[in-house]
Amino acid sequence: MWANFTIFLLLVSRVLSNFSGSEAYFDSSEEAPNIILSHMEDVDLKNSQDREDGRNDTSTLPVFVPGSSKRLTEYLLSKHNLNAPPDGLLNVHYELELVHILGIDELKQTMTVLIYVDEHWQDPSLVWDPALYGGIKKTWIPIDKIWVPDIIIFNMLAHEDLLSAVRAPARIHYNGTVVASHPAVHTVSCEINIRNFPLDHQKCAIEIASWAYGQEKIRLHAHTDHSLEHYKRNEEWHLIRINVTEEKYVHEGIEVSEVKFELYVQRRPLFYMVTLTFPSYIMCAISVVGLFARFSTTGEREERFTLGVTAILTMAVLSLVVSEKVPHSSTHVPLLVAYFLFNMVIVSIAAMTTGIVMKVHRLGRHGDEPSDFWLKLFLIKPICQFNRPNKRKYKMNPDEPNHVVLVSETKNGEIKNGILPQQQTQQVQIIKDPVHARLEALEEYIKKMMHRCEHIQLEMNEMESQDNLAETRRRSTNGYVKISERLDLIFMTFFLTTVTIPVAVLFYLT
């Protein structure tokens, strides 16, 4: 054991003596002691750094002094009082970047937006010399450790600071410039004008000012070049433009400096046009066609009034749906509600007009004829009445009681049922013979009379059908019936045009 230890010491002394020269060489790293390995690692690290320095210019890399940031923070907090504002007039530069319009509540008259806020101001108590702190030109300090201006949104109803849990620090530059940035969700009051709903344009303002300091202490300056780099479009509202103005605002007797961001937005009305306006138009058009279409010239068609009442109830339900969406204003009626009310009035007038048309039609059914003035007024020529054919007559010959006379007259003045045209009467004579002969003659006579009765029944049926046809023709050619048909056509065209023009204008504006 001692022999091995002695050999190890001799080996170490030889290695040290060789290392003291200009070079040292080892066949394997395992043959060298640990101290030599550590030294070789330092040499390799130095060589690698030299190679990196050969590729990169070290003059561009900042040189940091360990502990400089800590000393700088302690120095700034030691001389800064978070309860004391900077001396003199403080100019605060306020920049608001709109990211997304989360929604506009017409009923509550509010607007919710996601924004990025940047505030810049100068604080002399946060100035330092970068040369004394390792060349540090900017640092970060928690926002609750320094004084910040009490800038608030005056018309804000709700606020959600998205970085409150993260405690986003403020960036401070060596010349005393403080930059505080944070995203936030604000809900602000917004006066909604419902006159042109759903084709409305809205203007919502975000009023920013100091709550306690007047303009002699804090003066706000806005960035007029508003960036929309991070803006995400809203599906219901289209952003038209953003106006930024600097104004003065009197609050509790103090004149404060105010920055106002005005957002001009336009509603995308396609949803309301498809779900409300178009179904309303279809219902009105079908009602008008059902009220005035001429499907038949018979019957009173009282179902017209039922159809009109159904359409009116439908318009009333749709107007209630819209009323729940918009604010309950007593000064303006929304355009969409006015459109529904217009349709209700049109359908009501159409239903009442149908009563007039039905009254004129009933006069024609009773056989009355209008005067020539009305026929000329509606461009209807007088139509001749359909002449009814004469009826066949049967009678007994008063001079000869034993003779039966059958008289038949037609449109052509001819006798039917096998009677010759030149004959106008036919007599059947019963001859006075003995009893047997009389019975045979009577039997023959009865058969002939039965045959005649059958022909008479057929003739009566034919004449009845001709009477019905004549009555139908008379009704169709009656002057009042023609006038009622012309009135139906005129009113249907008029009311269809009346309900079509508004919806066409709405879709054009959309």
Automatic annotation (TrEMBL):
Entry-linked Gene3D superfamilies: Neurotransmitter-gated ion-channel ligand-binding domain, Neurotransmitter-gated ion-channel transmembrane domain
Mode of membrane association: Multi-pass membrane protein
Ranges annotated as spanning the membrane: 270-293, 305-323, 335-357, 489-509
InterPro entries named in the record: Neur_chan_lig-bd, Neur_chan_lig-bd_sf, Neur_channel, Neuro-gated_channel_TM_sf, Neuro_actylchol_rec, Neurotrans-gated_channel_TM, Neurotransmitter_ion_chnl_CS
Family: Belongs to the ligand-gated ion channel (TC 1.A.9) family.
Cell compartments where the protein resides: Membrane
UniProt source species: Caenorhabditis angaria
Chief localisation class: membrane
Name of this protein: Uncharacterized protein
One Pfam family hit: Neur_chan_memb
Lineage: Eukaryota, Metazoa, Ecdysozoa, Nematoda, Chromadorea
Key words, A-Z: Coiled coil, Ion channel, Ion transport, Membrane, Signal, Transmembrane, Transmembrane helix, Transport
The organism's place on the tree of life at top rank: Eukaryota
Gene Ontology cellular-component terms listed: membrane
Coiled coil: 439-466
Chain ranges of the Neurotransmitter-gated ion-channel ligand-binding domain: 70-269
